[in-house]
Amino acid sequence: MIRFKHILFVSTPESNQDNAVAMVKRFAGKLDAKVTLLTVLTPSTSLFGLSEGLDALMQEQAEHNARTQLSALAGHFEDAGIEVAIQVLWGNTSEQASLCARQQAIDLIAISATVEHSLQGYLFGTTAMQLIRRCPLPVWAIHKDARMPKRLLSAVDLQAETPQTDALARRLIDTGMTLADQLNAQFHLGCAWALENEGYLQIRGGIDEADFEQINQRLERKLESRMQTLLDDTDEASAAEVHTHLRHGSPVSTLTGMVTELHIDLMIIASLNRKGVEGLLIGNTAETLLQRTPCSILVIKPQAPEQTGPETKEPG
Questions:
Q1: What is the rounded CA–CA span in Å between residue 127 and residue 226?
Q2: pLDDT tens profile 94-117
Q3: What does this gene product do (predicted)?
Q4: Structural domains in the chain, sorted by start
C-alpha cells in the first residue's frame, strides 16, 4: 500500500502559489505527513563580470531573502501541528529538487502548476513539467483552482499487456484507493480504449460495419475482465468504493471529458521515460493531458525508487 509520509513542496514565489501551499498543508495534515519546503535559486547571468566580493554579497542576500520567505511559509505549517523543514539550494530546479528528494527520503514532490490560457489550452508551468519528466518520484502538480480532493480518478491503460504495465496499473489503483481512504473521497477508475489503427480500419480497412462492431464489443468485454482482475489483485483492506468507467475514444479527449463529467479534483496517471513500453500514458499523450486537464494531476512512476543518491550540497 502506497502512503505518502514526507512531502517536498517546491516553492516558486514568482507564481501565485497561495492555494498550492494551502493544499499541501491540508494534505499533509490528512495524511499525517511531514513537509520540506524548498526554494531553488538560479545564479543570474547579470552578475557575471562583477567582482567576486559583489557576486558573493548578492548571492548571500538572495539566499537570505529566500530563507525568510520559506520561514514565513513554514510558520503556517507549524501552526497546524505539521513537522516542517526548509531548504535553499542553487542550480536547476528540477535537478536540485530530485537530488534533495533522494537525499531526504521524500516520497511525494508537490509544486504549483502555473496555468496559462492559450490556443493549446491549459499549460502547466515548465518547472512542473520538467519535474514530471525527470524525477523518478511521484509528482503532484497542483492546479491554480485546486480544492481538497473529493473525487479521485486513476487513469489506467488496459491494452498494454506486460508485467510492467500490469504492475504500474496496480500501482495507480492502489494509490487512488489509499488516498480515497485517507481523504474520505470518491474513487473512480477510468480507461480510454480504441482499436489500434482504428481510424484506418474504419475508412480503408474494408471491414463490414457489423463485423467492426463485434470486434469492438469483444475488445470491450476483454478490457472489462482485465479491469476487474486488476481490482481483485489490489489491497483488500481498502474501504473505498470503486466507480469504474470504460470509455471508447482517444486517451486525451476521453479522459479530459471524464474529468469534467465526473467533477474530478485529482487525476492520477502514469508516466515512463520516452523509451518506455508502448501504450502507456507517456510522451506526448501524458504531456497533452497535463496541458488540458482542468484539475490537479498526480503522476506516478513505475516503481518506488531507491532512496539513495548523490549528496546535495548547499553553497558554502
A1: 36
A2: 899 999 998 999 999 999 986 444
A3: Required for resistance to DNA-damaging agents.
A4: 1-144 (3.40.50.620), 147-294 (3.40.50.620)
| Residue corresponding to grid cell 501541528 | 81
- Residue found under cell 513500453: 277
Q: CA 27, CA 33: separation in Å to the nearest integer? A: 8
Would you say 234 and 166 are in contact if contact means Cβ atoms under 8 Å apart? Answer: no
What is the identity of the amino acid at 226? R
Cβ atoms within 10 Å of 33's Cβ, excluding its own: 19
- Low-confidence residues in the chain, pLDDT < 50: 115-125, 273-282, 305-316
CA atoms of 140 and 109, how far apart (whole Å) = 6
- Per DSSP, 205 falls in state S
Query: What are the φ/ψ torsions at residue 186 (nearest 5 degrees)?
Result: -75, 145
- Residues 138, 310, 124, 109, Cα dihedral to 10°: 40
**225 in Cβ contact with 190 (< 8 Å):** no
Distance CA 271, CA 276 (A): 9
